[in-house]
Amino acid sequence: MDLLQGILSLTLGNVIMFAIAGVLIYLAVVKQYEPMLLLPIGFGAIMANIPLAAIEGLKPLEILRQAGIGTELFPLLIFVGVGAMIDFTPLLKNPKMLLFGGAAQFGIFFTLTFAVLLGFSIKEAAAIGIIGAADGPTSIFVANKFAKDLVGPITVAAYTYMALVPIIQPPVIRLLTTKQERMIRMDYFEQPVSKKVKVLFPIIVTFIAGIIAPNSVALVGFLMFGNLLRESGVTERLSKAAQNELASVVTILLGITIGSTMTAESFLNFDTLKIIGMGLIAFIFDSAGGIIFAKVLNLFSKRKINPMVGAAGISAFPMSARVIQREAQLADPTNFILMHAVSANVGGQIASIVAGGLILALVG
Fold first, then answer.
1. Is the pLDDT of residue 331 over 50?
2. Nearest to residue 201, comparing CAs of 350, 352, 353?
3. CB-based contacts of 174: which residues, under 8 Å, 6+ apart?
4. Less Cβ around it within 10 Å: N or C end of the chain?
């Protein structure tokens, strides 16, 4: 009879969660949408919903959840790897693109307000709104501070929509821009960036961000530390380890741990559906905010900016920049604005972290 206890304990909720986990694994394996995270999240969700597993066999995942998510360690270590992967040279050549990173965070604050109107507490609303940062580790970091029970659905929404940027952004871009605007060409800045500037940049950004939003120091600091390892030129082994071994190991642990929080009891409710819906709203308004900001600047600028570049201000790097370039070439096959889009995209990486710090300071 004990051998059948697991089968007899199956609920409809467990079956539904198995189906949801299957969808995540399908998106990862077949569609190749964020496979590095959706695959372990999906598998973790399967384990979490096996009847009696939480009692009998998931204590190691509970330890990982407390040590890696509860202490915010995993998201911060992910940032070290991300920082080591990012080349800020395009942004340093064209610093004004950082403005688009800021403008593209509009969706965070719009969604925060909307979530409050739907009945979420201000802290829960802040955790949901941060999905608009289009930055998975920041979403996990803030959600763990403000709404531990919502970490699962918020993380799934954040990474799923990041993966769906190539589907979400083009309709928004075409709705808010004309073909003539999408055909605008932009001048390139060919001046080289010195090693001194590249080394000083992560240090200065950490200092300034810490002064503006002290709660963002850990987020910005770990990202910039990873970048300093890359740009210093004297820690190549550490830089490669951060980009490869560290990022890979922590991604596996983070994904499967987040998946283990997706039990039927905590995930299958109306609040989860609202979070998924508001995550989509956040991404749409982020893209729209960047585009509208660029259009406003064009009213006062002699050198016109392709408004699509504003949409790349979200933190979904480098997918958003690629989407912008594709849209530009659909309008004009000879137009090449990829580096401008990349500049805005890496600017969005910084802006999203600062926005997360501001949310922590204002709401906390």
1. yes
2. 350
3. 327
4. N
